[in-house]
Amino acid sequence: MKTLVVCSGGLDSVSLAHLAAETQSLTRLVSFDYGQRHRKELAFAEAAAMRLGVPHHLIDLRAIGAALTGSALTDNIDVPDGHYAEETMKITVVPNRNAIMLTIAYGIAAANGDEAVATAVHGGDHFIYPDCRPAFAEAFDQMQRAALDGYADVSLWTPFLHGTKADIVKSGTEHGTPFAQTWSCYKGGETHCGRCGTCVERREAFHLADIPDPTVYTDPDFWRQAIAEKGAR
């Protein structure tokens, strides 16, 4: 299938782009600037597009992002430390973010004759983010088919939907993802902080996949403490 990949520049979406390049007909990467504090991730998405030889569409959603208040990713609110599954991580939810981005991605796909829109949502996201869950993916796909009925036939491709972050690391390894050229940290510093939910989840995934993690973390050992504290609750 001619496949558009929604790519943030993170480990998951860049791994998805490499998977699509090898198993589908990758047509383009689409990224979104919604005013996220970790905007530096977008440079990694652009680099992935160049590496894979496809166009990179960067969509400016900063005005929309400014209206989606209350998230640590877009407001002046501290990004919490700790494991992703903790209640505190709900402060990183940007309301309806995936629904907004996917709607635009479907429009771009339809306009360009693409057959699928791919997104890298996975099982580890389900607890925190409602628009990463299987029920959302199924309903959204049906809604978009109705929205484009008679104009275009575009499906939603979510190969990681029921998998884990460790599964994505394994897939990325199999399909040549350069993990060092991806960005996960929500704090957007010079290096990955090693303490926020995305850093902890990233480090844990490499550990569970038994694959060396090339990422440079400011605090490379915090993930063990975060996991131990989660297990003690």
Automatic annotation (TrEMBL):
How is the cofactor bound here? Binds 1 zinc ion per subunit.
Q: What does this protein do?
A: Catalyzes the ATP-dependent conversion of 7-carboxy-7-deazaguanine (CDG) to 7-cyano-7-deazaguanine (preQ(0)).
Q: Give one GO molecular function term.
A: ligase activity
The reaction(s) annotated as catalysed by this protein in its Swiss-Prot or TrEMBL entry are:
7-carboxy-7-carbaguanine + NH4(+) + 2 ATP = 7-cyano-7-carbaguanine + 2 AMP + 2 diphosphate + 2 H(+)
Which cofactors are reported in the record for this sequence?
Zn(2+)
Judged by the first EC level, this protein's enzyme class is ligase
Q: Which residues bind Zn(2+)?
A: 185, 193, 196, 199
Entry-linked NCBIfam families: 7-cyano-7-deazaguanine synthase QueC
User: This protein's superkingdom?
Assistant: Bacteria
What's the protein here called? Answer: 7-cyano-7-deazaguanine synthase
**Family of the protein in this entry:** Belongs to the QueC family.
Binding site residues for ATP: 7-17
- Which EC number(s) are documented for this chain? 6.3.4.20
Pathway listed for it is: Purine metabolism; 7-cyano-7-deazaguanine biosynthesis
Q: Which UniProt keywords apply?
A: ATP-binding, Ligase, Metal-binding, Nucleotide-binding, Queuosine biosynthesis, Zinc
